[in-house]
Every structure is written in C-alpha cells, then in structure tokens.
Design brief:
The structure is a single chain. The chain has six helices and nine strands, in the order ααβαβαββαβββαββ. About 35% of the residues lie in helices and about 25% in strands. It has one domain: Rossmann fold, CATH 3.40.50.150. Strand 8 (about 195-205) and strand 9 form a beta hairpin. Helix 1 (about 10-30) packs parallel to helix 4. The chain has helices at about 10-30, 35-50, 65-75, 85-95, 130-140, 185-190, and strands spanning about 55-60, 80-85, 100-105, 115-120, 145-155, 160, 175-180, 195-205, 210-220. The longest helix has 18 residues, at about 10-30. With about 220 residues, the protein is α/β, with parallel strands linked by helices. The strands form two sheets. A seven-stranded mixed β-sheet has the order 3-2-1-4-5-9-8, with helices on both faces. It has a two-stranded antiparallel ribbon with strand order 6-7. It binds S-adenosylmethionine (SAM). S-adenosylmethionine binds near residues 84, 88, 123 and 124.
C-alpha cells in the first residue's frame, strides 16, 4: 500500500504505529501478566473447547509479538498467528521460533475457508473503526470450521481513546487510537456473521486499566 492508496479503515497508521513500537511492546509485554485471572479463565475455556475436538488448529488473529500464541500453545493448541505489522510478526518469530506467524489483515485473512478449529481476536479488533467490524467477523467465520470457536477480548465501552501517549515514555511519537465497543455490539456482529454466543465476561477496570474489559466466546454451528 502506497501513501496515495485509499486507507478508509486507517490501517496504514495502525501498521506504522505497531511497526514503530514492536521491539518495546515485545519487551514490555512478553507474557500474560497483564491479564486478570478472569480473562485467562475465558482463554482457558476457549483452549479447552478447541482441544476437545479432532484437531486443535487455532489462529491468533492480531497476534502482535506472539505472547498469547505461546499461552495457547502451552494449552495444547496448534497455533498460527497473523498480524498487520511486519515488525510485530518479526518479534513473534524471534521470540517463538517454533510457531508460524504471517503478515496479513483481519479483514482479508490469508487462509482458505474452514481452516481453523478456533480463532482468537485478543485486543486486535480495537484499532478498527465500526465500519470495518462486520468484515473482521465475516473473515473469522470464513476460516473457521463448522463447530469451531471464536474468542474476542476488548475494552468495553463507547467512543475512542487516543493511546499515542502510552508510547511516549518509550520515546515513540506515534498516532494511535483504539475504539471501544459494548459487549452487545460485538455480540450482534458475531451473530450477524453466523456465529452463536456461548458466554461472555464483563469485568470492571483494574489497576492501570482505563476501561472495563470484556471477553466473548462464540461457536459456529
Ligand atoms: C493491542 S495489540 C494486541 C496484540 C496481541 N493480541 C496481544 O495480546 O499481545 C493489537 C495488535 O493487533 C494488530 N492489528 C490491529 N489491526 C489489525 C488488522 N486489521 N489486521 C491484523 N492485525 C491487526 C496490531 O498490529 C497489533 O499487533
């Protein structure tokens, strides 16, 4: 994509931001210590649902530097990761050389139909504005097998937050915003894509978090 190519969903800016901060992101968030036990209970439920079937191929969609891919792999999932940012993918490959990572967009996943038993979107839908959300869930559903599961983690609320400042202390001048979505909004998107909600977690913000956090588990029939 060149700078003259239309970029209606703002992915060029998102890619540039994560390319810029990738090394610090990987160093600062190497594992799941930022997740609350309740959040991880939902990830565990997802991993258990996926590994109870015949094959446990999981896509970590918006995998960043791969910390959640590692968490899923440790729970028996056969994980691949995909991310918009080639520098985040480079960090993932460096830190998790036994797993496969690919550069690609949630809105145009580089995989055939029915490829995965599970798709996890862990804080990766948050940089896509409302106009792009239906496409993300349509793509997650396309690559999911019948009976497969989708897990979505995100900050719960409405509107947008400028998160550029969070990276200034690492010396990065980037422009990055994240979108807040209500659990009902995400549930509607999931159902419009043909999935069925299994359960959801909504918990209050803790520690340095600015927003409540939500996790939805859904299934393809
Ligand atoms: C907040 S980070 C979360 C990364 C990882 N899931 C984790 O929990 O560490 C958001 C990630 O989503 C990726 N991302 C954002 N929009 C994307 C898109 N349209 N397609 C693929 N990846 C995207 C970013 O590049 C970034 O690595």
């Amino acid at each position: 994509m060149t700078s003259s190519t239309p970029d209606p969903l703002g992915f060029r800016r998102v890619r540039h931001a994560y390319d810029t901060v990738a090394e610090d992101y990987a160093a600062y968030l190497p594992d799941t210590r930022a997740e609350a036990p309740l959040d991880l209970a939902m990830v565990d439920a997802f991993a258990e649902a996926v590994t109870s079937g015949d094959d446990a191929q999981v896509l970590d969609a918006g995998c960043g530097a791969g910390r959640m891919s590692r968490y899923l792999a440790e729970r028996g999932c056969l994980v691949e990761g995909v991310d918009l940012s080639s520098s985040m993918v480079a960090m993932a490959r460096r830190d998790h050389p036994d797993l496969v990572f690919t550069v690609g967009s949630l809105t145009d996943l580089p995989y055939p139909d029915d490829r995965f038993a599970g798709v996890m979107l862990w804080y990766s839908i948050i940089h896509t504005p409302p106009a792009g959300q239906a496409r993300i869930f349509a793509e997650a559903t396309r690559v999911l097998r019948p009976g497969g599961h989708v897990l979505v983690g995100f900050q719960s609320g409405e509107g947008t937050r400028d998160v550029s400042g969070a990276y200034r202390r690492f010396g990065h001048e980037i422009q990055l915003e994240r979108h807040l979505y209500t659990p009902d909004h995400v549930a509607c998107q999931i159902e419009a894509a043909g999935l069925r909600e299994v359960c959801r977690l909504v918990r209050r913000a803790q520690g340095n978090e600015k927003d409540d956090q939500a996790v939805l588990l859904a299934k393809a029939d």
